[in-house]
Design brief:
183 residues; 3 domains; 7 helices
Amino acid sequence: MFFQKDIETMPRKDIEKLQLERLKWLVGYCIDNIPFYSKRLAEAKVTPEKIKSLSDIQYIPYTTKADIRDTYPFGLFGQPMKKIVRIHASSGTTGKPTVVGYTKKDLDTWSDCMARLCVAAGATDEDIVQIAFGYGLFTGALGLHYALEKIGCTVVPTSSGNTEKQIMLMQDFQTTALVSTPS
């Protein structure tokens, strides 16, 4: 079963061609739109024209946790804030959270990717899926939520905690799938 069969069954050589095109585009985009990466890529002498194969990814500098901290909160965003429709972040247990800004297109792409994952795992439009991830800044619950809706599943967004209520809702709503953390 497939959500986007043309993408999910693409021949390896076509995947690699698409990946190379997108990598070149992304490098150019970062150079043109994100000062942090423009500087970092210039220092590494990486340009779209210098990327000839996927193995050239090795020349692209890593983004470190220190880089993320130093550019907090929005320094790595590739779009102006007026195009950012949602912000998510890590818990920030080691300091400031890692912040991610999403455009409408980002959210659509993300939910497509998650829908492919869900269909590959067996989800169908007949399922009633209970999501027991915490909702909020954590990205997991909402990405999965919108993906399941794209498939046509009925989504029960119970969030986390309250085991007795989770079980009651599973029984009452006849939940066919549960998504949660193992704890």
